[in-house]
Amino acid sequence: MRRLTGTIAAAAALLALTAGMPGAKAEDILVGVAGPITGPDAQFGEQMKRGAQKAVEDINAKGGVLGKKLKLLIGDDQCDATQAVAVANKMVSDKIVFMDGHYCSSTSIPASAVYNDGGVLQITPASTNPALTDDAAAKGWNNVFRTVGRDDAQGGVAGKYIAEKYKGKKVAIIQDKTAYGKGLADETKKAMNAAGLKEVMYESITRGDKDFSALISKMKQAGVDVFYLGGYHPEAGLLVRQARDQGFNAQFISGDALVTDEFWKITGKAGEGVLMTFPPDPRNLPSAKAVVDSFKKDGYDPEGYTLYTYAAMQAFAAAAEKAKSVKVDDLSKALHSMTVDTVIGKLSWDKKGDINDAKYVFYVWKDGTYKEM
User: Fold this and answer.
1) Which CATH superfamily hosts domain 151-278?
2) What pLDDT, in 10s, does the model give residues 178-205?
3) Distance between CA atoms of 212 and 102, rounded to whole angstroms?
């Protein structure tokens, strides 16, 4: 029997049943989604919740999985590792067979141990730190997968672009000390250095920081032309706004944690021209049209990780149908042997659970929206 880790009781207040859905029945298949439903990253939790809910509704409307209806449980980890472990333990205690989550790499990584011990398949739609799947594979786990790329893929694109576009310029690399932010910044730095450009500064900030005056002054004094941040949108938004207020107009570049209109709400016009990396916008794919239209009919724009969360639920359902089972060993074997048609296109996985052929492109913020360059 697989063991549970952490304190199950601590998660009780963090878990809620999907609003408007009837109580679970004995024949239901329980699945979960977990992310920052509240807190500074709540807009991403909303994306994940919406994506999972819509996927469950659509799958159930087509007959469910293995002739049974899916029942969705929602966990709120606030992108906090301790709460994520508590949520994971509660989910395992409630006997889910699949977790669509988490969002932050710093929560997905510790939660993955709980899901492995509990025999639960985990597919994250958003966590990009390579350690998530690298460490799981090194330990012989078979329960961890993604529907999104890794920081080494994203950082590789960003680092090469910076080195080529800003050859001979002064670049500052900044990271927020989180598993995601530091991982992405370091991968970007590695690729940039390999392409022949060395940074003039490597600095760190802390999540929750509000005043970046000292850092901005330091970059101005160093004559920085480009500053790259590995971090999340609240700090990114404040950093670029304060930089512009202080007359520091160097090019600002960051990663996929800026794919929310909340970033522009923080920056206003100061966000004009900000660059970021993210996979090609899935909302534009033919495979997503019907689902995107359905979301928009309900008054919701499925931006960011909404469709990646939807795709993770599709992958679970397809694997269960192929395996004729919801046991983690059977689901894992099925996923490794198949290509799944999802809203974000055809997905297949390597031996670590990472998607094959992950792609990243650059986006630019303009007039309150982000568009592919």
Assistant:
1) Response regulator (3.40.50.2300)
2) 999 999 999 999 999 999 999 999 999 9
3) 29
